[in-house]
Amino acid sequence: MDTIGRFAALLSYDGSAFHGFQRQKDLPTVELALEEALNLLDKKGRRVKVTGAGRTDRGVHALGQVVHFDISWPHGPTALRKALEANLPSSIGVYEVVPVDFAFHARRSALWRKYAYFIWKGDCRLPHLGRYVWWNRRGWDMDLAKKFLTMIEGFHEFGAFCRKADRPSDARRTIMEARIEEKGPLLKVSVTGRSFLTNMVRIIVGTMDEIATGRKSLEEVCRLLDGGSRGEAGPTAPAKGLFLWEVRYDPMPFGCEEYNAVTGNFIL
After folding, report:
1. Tell me, what is an example of a GO biological process annotation in this record (predicted)?
2. Residue 256 confidence (pLDDT)
3. How far does CA 122 lie from the centroid of its chain?
4. Residue 115 marked in a binding site
5. Which domain holds residue 70?
6. 166 annotated active-site
7. What is the separation of C-alpha 152 from the centre of its chain, rounded to a whole number of angstroms?
8. Which helix (H) or strand (E) holds 200?
């Protein structure tokens, strides 16, 4: 008799193919695609429920999304990874599937999440990267951009950096690290924290754009981090530049060399 076990999966996906991670009626989502594939694989014919580490919005990508699910599967995790990926659309990849304890929860067990946002500063268009970067040709003062990212690190009131309709009563969050890397005209902004508000990283990037171009001052950032309104912050940067980059656990259930090679080499 087949038993039910819990598995965790490390995924990547092209968010331009989906209306976000979370299931929505009559719309393609990552959660729907995963559950439809897993329903075909469950040996007991059960409906499999997937839980993700983060609910990415429409158009947002993932390089290191983590999900867990309970399934009846007697053939081992390697075979499950191959069978799952074979039944998914090409816009979703599965790096690794591992058995985990039933106490493991993709969202609640996470220590922190890292998001990465990519910006292309070149004068010419990059058609093959158009779905994954924000083409922003405005001149930036990189010292101001870095100072802004340093200012948002730590425990602050981030209500100004949340979509107005979704601002919670307690919008305090902790940013563990915020940094920017340059590879020629390609910029990567990384923001790490335990949890995030709706559109928070994209509004951080949109506000950084206004700081780095001189349309807002660093002095205004202090007010934004002290209960400022959404209208005082910058615009919401386009979804296509944002990736859920990494989710960390202790102990870490994954050791995928392919994933580590991709993230370690700053590959889109």
Report:
1. tRNA pseudouridine synthesis
2. 81
3. 25
4. yes
5. 4-109
6. no
7. 19
8. helix 200-212
